[in-house]
Amino acid sequence: MRALVTGGTGFIGSSIVRALLGEGYEVRALVRSGSHTANIDGLDVERVTGDITDYSSLKRAMRGCTQVFHAAALYSFWVTTPGLIEHVNVDGTRNVLQAALESGAKRVVYTSSVAALAVPQRGIPVDESTPVDPRQIIGAYKKSKYAAEQVVLEYAKKRLPVVIVNPSFPVGPRDIKPTPTGQTILDFLNHRLPAYVDTGINVVDVEDVARGHLLAAEKGRTGERYILGGTNMPMKEFLGILEAITGISAPRVQLPYAPLLALSYLNAGWCRMTKTTPRMTPDTIRMSRHYMYYDPSKAINELGMPQTPPEVALKKAVEWFTEHRKS
Predict the structure, then answer these.
(1) Residue 136 banded pLDDT, cuts 50, 70, 90
(2) ∠ CA 47-318-8 to the nearest 5 degrees?
(3) Beta partners for residue 49, in sequence order
(4) pLDDT at position 289, please?
(5) What is the dihedral sign for C-alpha 286, 291, 296, 297?
(6) 143, 145, 177, 326: which is the annotated catalytic residue?
(7) What are residue 231's phi and psi, to 5 degrees?
(8) By three-state DSSP, how is residue 31 classified?
(9) DSSP secondary structure string, 283-327?
(10) How far apart are the first and last CA of the chain?
(11) Where are the alpha helices (H) located in the chain, listed in sequence order?
């Protein structure tokens, strides 16, 4: 079988590519012109130049593909071009689904995010059935992922066999950008994390997330969501695991929320003037007020998604960042 992967050069996408190759698939990757391709260099992958905002390139890329894994997205909490995130994440998703429908794809897996789910309250894990109040969704990125899911549900009603997966906070090798979670690991390794905030995350091995995509293609129900998550933990515990792995002392100082939010606004203003990217934004600080806990039981029970211990996943991430150390 031949599968198309959009976003195949990225963190999750390149892990999907490797998982597909491991199962004997012929893999085709949609690659934007000028993209950094280190994550798939040396792999037996057919590359097709294109962009999810370019419908004609998607039509070409999907020829002969029975399965489509749509992992491409603009994942950023700092975009200064108005409408860009919605154009890529929502309009681009519509393009992918329409091209898949017209090409007769047998299965489409859409990589959403826990960002599209309900905001966890009082540390209670959210699952796929927790009602979502769109007014509580924080920031353009999260709003775009929620809107893109509504597009997916439209196409499921058009009989496109599409499944939604919602990764939580993946860690592991090839976090090349890196993701916000990966940046925290990198800052820790570079001794640039003097303090932490009172928050919590759901940590999952990126290779488990990739496997979850393949399992969703095989066993997932059309129009259903599956949280591809792992272990819920406070940030203090997350940093404690990193300390045990690396021998680097974890920060002991916990930052209060209010002054940190004020500082994030000042930082954002400075970055707008200097055309740089902030390490923290008002949106990310607002999100940090919540323990971002999720319940992956549905993916575990229905799909058989594996659950690698967070210590193992974080060790792999540390080893990769150490080998590819950058600031």
Answers:
(1) confident
(2) 15
(3) 31
(4) 66
(5) negative
(6) 145
(7) -110, 130
(8) strand
(9) HHHHHTTSB--B--HHIIIII------HHHHHHHHHHHHHHT---
(10) 40
(11) 11-22, 55-62, 84-86, 92-103, 140-157, 180-189, 206-219, 235-246, 257-274, 282-287, 297-298, 310-323
231-253 core/surface letters (b: 16 or more CB in 10 A; e: else): bbbbbbbbbebbeebbeeebeee
Residue range 256-271: mean pLDDT, rounded: 66
Domains of the chain are: 2-173+203-231+293-308 (3.40.50.720)
Whether residue 145 lies in the annotated active site: yes
pLDDT at 115 over 60: yes
Q: Specify the DSSP element, H or E, that contains 30.
A: strand 26-31
Cβ atoms of 291 and 123 within 8 Å: the answer is yes
Q: Give the contacts of 18 (CB within 8 A, at least 6 positions apart).
A: 43, 207, 210
Measure the CA dihedral 231/114/132/256, to 10°: 70
Instruction: Give the single-character DSSP code of 116.
Output: G
Asked if the bond preceding 178 is cis, omega within 30° of 0, the reply is yes
85 Cβ contact partners less than 8 Å away, ≥ 6 residues apart: 74, 76, 79, 140, 141, 144
CA 223 to the chain's CA centroid: 19
In angstroms, the CA 66 to CA 107 distance is 7
Q: For 322, list phi and psi in degrees, rounded to 5.
A: -65, -40
What does the pLDDT look like over 34-88, one tens digit per residue? 889 999 999 999 999 999 999 999 999 999 999 999 999 977 665 656 678 899 9
